């Protein structure tokens, strides 16, 4: 949620509840007006494979999966989530689904539990993009 709010408002808010929200936002990219619909789903420590997860996957055209570099559990769940997304999306039309892995809280490097290299290697092994950012900064 912090990254979504930062993207939408350029402000940082540190605390969020466990609510899902869908945001809409217009942005000009390379001279073209792009309308983003962002379904912001709270963090879960297990791979949810129910109908609500399936609904989200079918709704989306691309995915940004965020983990905390200070929380190994949030990183460890990514391979299962990505495999679930790919099975649901790529099984339908055989096109590669755009997925980006984002390590957040780069500003808290002194509390790092997941190295940048681990994030890059995971993204490479799963054919995803990779970034490390700080929503706070």
UniProtKB/TrEMBL annotation:
Keywords: GTP-binding, Hydrolase, Nucleotide-binding. Its EC number is 3.6.5.2. It is an enzyme of class 3 (hydrolase). GO terms for molecular function: G protein activity; GTP binding. It catalyses: GTP + H2O = GDP + phosphate + H(+). Belongs to the small GTPase superfamily. Ras family. This is small monomeric GTPase. It comes from Tricholaema leucomelas (pied barbet).
């Amino acid at each position: 949620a912090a990254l979504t709010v930062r993207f939408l408002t350029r402000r940082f808010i540190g605390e969020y509840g466990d609510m899902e929200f869908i945001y809409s936002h217009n942005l000009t990219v390379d001279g073209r007006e792009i309308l983003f619909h962002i379904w912001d789903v709270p963090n879960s420590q297990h791979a949810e494979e129910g109908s609500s997860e399936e609904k989200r996957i079918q709704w989306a055209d691309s995915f940004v999966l965020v983990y905390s570099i200070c929380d190994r559990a949030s990183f460890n769940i990514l391979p299962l989530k990505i495999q679930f997304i790919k099975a649901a999306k790529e099984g339908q039309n055989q096109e590669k689904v755009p997925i980006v892995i984002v390590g957040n809280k780069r500003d808290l490097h002194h509390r790092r539990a997941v190295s940048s290299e681990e994030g890059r290697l995971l993204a490479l092994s799963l054919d995803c993009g990779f970034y490390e950012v700080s929503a706070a900064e």
